[in-house]
Amino acid sequence: MKHLLSGLAIVAAFHAHAQEQEMARIAAQPAVKQALAYIEKNEPTTTANTLAINAIPAPTFAEGARARDYAERLKAAGLRDVHIDGAGNVLGTYHGSGKGPTVVLAAHLDTVYPAGTDLTVREKDGRYYSPGIADNGRSLAAMLAIATALGDARVQTEGDVLFVANVGEEGLGDLKGVKYLFSQRKDIKAFIGLEPALGAEGDPVTYIGTGSRRFKVTMRGPGGHSYEGFGLPSATHAAGRAIARIDDIRVPAQPKVTFNVGVVQGGQSVNSIAAKASLLIDIRSADAPLLAKVEQQIKDAIRQAVDDTNQRWNSKAITAEVALIGDRPAGQMDKDSLIVKAALAAATVQGRPALLDGAHSTDANLPMSLGIPAITMSGGGSSGGYHSEKLEWWSAQRAHTAPQNVMLTILGLVGVRGVTAPLL
User: Fold this and answer.
1) How many other CB atoms are there within 10 angstroms of residue 204's CB atom?
2) Which domains, and CATH codes, for the chain?
3) Residues in the chain with pLDDT < 50?
């Protein structure tokens, strides 16, 4: 067994070295060198695009204005077949020779912030503060820079690069955009999504997709006056028992699994016995069986809370309805998979650290779950304060390196005419 493992390690190292050689040839090709230089030289323009794109509100389910603006930007970048599909995604194609695979580069249009959020940018100590600027305004601008650089340098690819600005990645969007994309397109052979680096140093590659299941729990009871009807069971009391039981669930640290009761609503007034109460629950893990196990524990806790409340008030009036409102499949690429090795090689040949990130929940979850090679890469720069209206920030420090890594990775996957065949 020891000799077998050593042999496998040698084979993996050989393939990694071979991919680095292929990537080095691509990076040295004159047109590709020009495109890489374009990305670095034009970072000020990409930063300006980041600010301009982020200034257009794009709450989940209301991304239309940003989508229309982005479609015009993709047309100006020289992409062909630019259009908005039935889900609201913006698509544009960088065409190759037709002798290679179709690879998607995607960044989501939507933000977690509701309509009416103040998107004014504040600049302080080299950081730009604005809701959504990191997640995902910067990634949209980075994707635009890559499209423009390829066209400006006239890089000739074998396969097609399908640029997608998709809707519905955040919250209850439930990966609406990529789910629609993959239901319509059966020719996609690989997928790269762009997101902020999520606090990690450098430009890491995410190869593990954290799955999530989300539920709305609705408790119902008879309702009544708090004094005249005292003795009737309350839906909010039942919800409280459910929360307490859920809070008592113990989960392992590894594999990581989390749960959260994020929203609690119910009741009519201070002197009314509540006829209705609701909970929004989020459960996450990259381990699908563990995710299912904790889901069942939470459902058991809800059922027991209903029974306890009815027993306490000698009633059968309290009921609970559990409705699935979000389902992000878990997924994972092998560390030695071609797409992961290609992304790491892209960094290595440019003299940068080849970094792997931990698990995250992104658009790449969906293609991973379908068996399609998929990763998430950084849109560039550094950032923090995600999903916090006052604290979200992005910095342009060395922001050009991530788009360069992404472009090289894509070129490795689709192949460059006269230089290398597609790695896929």
Assistant:
1) 23
2) 16-209+330-414 (3.40.630.10), 211-328 (3.30.70.360)
3) 4-5, 7-11, 14
